[in-house]
Amino acid sequence: MTPTSRTAKTNRPKRTQRPPKKLSRTDSPGAPLPYLDRELSQLAFNRRVLAQAENKEIPLLERLRYLCIVSNNLDEFFEIRVASLLAPENMKSAPASPQATEEAMERGSIECHRIIARQYEILNNEVLPELAAKGVFLLDHQDRNEAQRAWVKSYFERAVRPLLTPIGLDPAHPFPQVLNKSLNFIAELSGRDAFGRENAIAIVKAPRVLPRVIRLPDSLSGKGICFCLLSSIIQAHMADLFTGRTVTSCSQFRVTRNSDLWLDEEEVKNLREALQLELSTRQFGVAVRLEVSAGCPPHLSDFLLAQFAIDRNRFYAVDGPVNMARLLELIDHVPQPALLFPPFSPGLPDTLSQGDIFAILRSKDVLLHHPFQSFQPVANFIRTAAEDPDVLAIKQTIYRTGMNSDLMESLILAARRGKEVTVIVELMARFDEEANINWAERLERVGAQVVYGVVGLKTHAKLALVIRREHGELRYYAHLGTGNYHPTTTRLYSDFGLLTSHEGITAEVNEIFIHLTSLTKPGKLQYLWLAPFTLQRKLVKAIRNEAAIASQGRPGRIIAKMNALLDESVIDALYAASRAGVKIDLIVRGACALRPGVPGMSDNIKVRSIVGRFLEHSRIFYFRNDLRHDVYLSSADWMGRNLFRRIEIAFPVLDKSLKRRVIDEGLRPYLKDNADAWELDSSGVYHQKKARKKTSAWRAQLHLAATLGTLGSVNDA
Fold first, then answer.
1. What is the pLDDT of residues 475-501, one digit of tens each?
2. Residue 532, preceding bond cis, omega within 30 degrees?
3. Residue 155 and residue 161: Cα distance in Å, rounded?
């Protein structure tokens, strides 16, 4: 396989420290390698999500949602991970050898084909038939009655056909540009065109401005709610586009392209302008996957593979819509609460009922556990600061915030009112670049100081600082979090946030802002661990400290929760701690390269993953440390990119009661979970925990939703 890439050198910022050497492969030829395969581990997470779609105890529309989530995840896997394997010189880490790349591609291809085949099997044989039994129908052309067909034809003529531009291929009509993940059709025609020629192939691109799921009028059917796909409408009327010719075959197809943006950091003069230029070409990156409908004739699929220069192991013939993720549109249009999860309302800490947020924070820290507790106090914190005449300055990092955000509007308000507003906007936040550029421009127009972080290092830390004048002196208030300032994800992702006026922590938050805006070396930090400078070193030191304690005969204990564990220097430190007798529990939602339970290497390490209603996103690091019970919350996963190539923080929870809350809410329930938990074995296979009796099934997320918020029943909706 010949990788396709841009001919430009990769410039990486120098690391401030060198990661430890990798662990040797093991002395015994038959022993397992110390690290699990990254790609297979990432795909194994999608297997666990797919298992949610298989679970008949989950409401039907939620099962459909999980199928769509798998599709979105696989899209990103191809757009980013597979693309990086095909173009290793653009990766921000050492490229693999051609043989290793080929092997990784082959392994990933086999598993992707299995996952996708199972996806469509669940959709066609379980979810859609069961939805039909509940009165929700997704109708193909042959399933529609005469009245529905007439309505669909009318819809096609008035809303679809005017937007279509069929292209018959010949030397004057070359193959058209096909956008990333867009819906297209390849049609084979018999007969001659209007000029007497036998051009046999035509391409039709579906309009991107139209909805992919269309609800048919209820008056046309008395049997329930009926939908059809835009793809089936176009396909049913394809012949209408080619008057005088016969359409002998018509197939959907979809191309996934490399979507990772790449900038030559030595050549960039203005990051925002360079990124805007790069964004304009993202939709036309190198093709990395081709999906076609299952009935596509082999010679046409071969034609498409050759056209896009895609290797056959990245070809997928699917039994259904080529973009299953678009079925998410159907979920929002079915008014049947019984087919969805019960409604949930996040709670609020009792401490915030006392009124003035600054007075509250002067007396105590406030811990928020999202989505079980509302994110609104954080938005209110910034809004109050924007409106408070005694607040002089607000500083904030923005990684993802979405197109609509009350919090960002508050920053704009603060700038308009003359406050010093500094916002570090990460323009390279993948797939949120355009939204972040728009916010940056709006902030600059009202006089805010906008900085784009450090070129070559994504600013992923979640920080907000308010500087207020009180009794003639300046006082700092801060929010530090594990998740983004994003109004949607705060309702779906599990994260922790800390509101504090602790003098040491808030002063160090200000120090980090000065570091990021001035690019000067940060001062010595006592409380915060900062990547790429100290976070990896402090983390490994804490792990080694537990190993030293265990070596002296005292209990060593580590519990950590994160999205991914891939950094080999951290894994090696954990292996050493396990050999020293430290008991280690790791709650890793996604990819994990650590191999647990290997005799003599990781006997004392257990790894589990939780996949439930909410996306596990918080990063929590607990070290027993001779009963000091050190607890850190962080924006960073244990990956090389987070520890060495991003601006990240880990911050301590100092208040004993809040520390206990983090342990009791963020760690213990997830170790107790026996329904949504999956345990990783030493061979790299995950096994779902099963309660002995259905009545003894215990779900961490369900417990937290009921105790911290209000979890209703379907009858409450």
1. 999 999 999 999 999 999 999 999 999
2. yes
3. 9
Across 524-659, where does the E strand assignment appear?
529-531, 557-562, 583-588, 605-610, 615-616, 619-623, 630-634, 646-652
Segment 380-403 shows an average pLDDT of: 96
Q: CA 661 → CA 279, 348, 436, 491, 540, distances in Å?
A: 43, 14, 34, 20, 25
Q: Is 499 helix (H, G, I), strand (E, B) or coil?
A: strand
The Cα 399–Cα 387 span in angstroms is 24
| 358-383 pLDDT, tens digit each | 999 999 999 999 999 999 999 999 99
Q: Tell me, yes or no, if 460 is annotated catalytic.
A: yes
What is the residue extent of each domain of the chain? 59-339, 345-526, 530-716
Per-residue confidence band for 13, with pLDDT thresholds at 50, 70 and 90? very low
- Do residues 610 and 490 touch, judged by C-beta distance below 8 A? no
Alpha carbon 57 to its chain's center: 25
Q: Are 59-339 and 530-716 the same fold in CATH?
A: no
pLDDT tens, position by position, 285-337? 899 999 999 999 999 999 999 999 999 999 999 999 999 999 999 998 999 99
Q: Does residue 25 surpass a pLDDT of 50?
A: no
8 Å CB contact between 64 and 72? no
Torsion of CA 558, 563, 568, 569, to 10 degrees: -50
Rounded CA separation 399/444 (Å):
17
Question: HEC states along 654-716?
Answer: CCHHHHHHHHHHHHHHHHHCCCCEEEECCCCCEEECCCCCHHHCCCHHHHHHHHHCEECCHHH
| Angle CA 493–495–499, to nearest 5 | 140
Residue closest to 259 by CA, chosen among 203, 326, 180, 359: 180
Q: What is the dihedral of CA 272, 276, 279, 281, to 10 degrees?
A: -130
What pLDDT, in 10s, does the model give residues 255-281? 999 987 666 555 555 666 666 666 666
Any idea which fold 530-716 has?
Endonuclease; Chain A (3.30.870)
Length of the chain in terms of residues written: 717
User: Of 369, 370, 460, 502, which one is the catalytic site residue?
Assistant: 460
Distances (CA, A) of 62 to 328, 341, 682: 10, 7, 32
The fold for domain 345-526 equals Endonuclease; Chain A (3.30.870)
CATH for the stretch 59-339: 3.30.1840.10
CB 393 within 8 A of CB 468: no
Please give the model's pTM, rounded to 2 decimal places: 0.91
- Please report the pLDDT score of residue 454 as a whole number: 81
Q: CA-based Rg of the chain, rounded to a whole angstrom?
A: 27
For 414-456, what is each residue's pLDDT tens digit? 999 999 999 999 887 777 788 888 999 999 999 999 998 787 8
For residues 41 and 592, is the Cβ–Cβ distance under 8 A? yes
Burial degree of 127 (CB within 10 A; 0-12, 13-18, 19+):
buried
